[in-house]
Amino acid sequence: MKIDSKTSHLISSGTAICGGSAIAAVDRFLVQMKSQMSVALGTVFILNSIALFIFPIIGEYLKLLADAVRIWAAIAIHDTSSVVGAAAKYAMRHSELPPPSNLRAHYGSYP
Questions:
Q1: Does residue 40 contact residue 26 with C-beta atoms inside 8 Å?
Q2: Long-range CB contact pairs, 92-101, < 8 A, 24+
Q3: pLDDT of residue 57
């Protein structure tokens, strides 16, 4: 893949620091075109989406404790909401976290 250096700097900062907010902060210093920022944001958010679904699966395969998945997700995933989602999904599958009250009210008890 051929990516220009400014876009790769934005993607690098987004994946290394804090996701979209880091891209927005670094963008001011690099004076980017909107398309470069869009590509960088899209890349980071796609990676977050993949991590949201794949981390619980890998955690189950490796038979990790919920705390280990929480720490791993916090270190590896770029966006706080995806970290919380992946960790909560794993913990609910292992009955270590009660389901949210709105799910209990709507669906009743679930495994």
A1: no
A2: 93/56, 93/60, 94/66, 96/66, 97/66
A3: 92
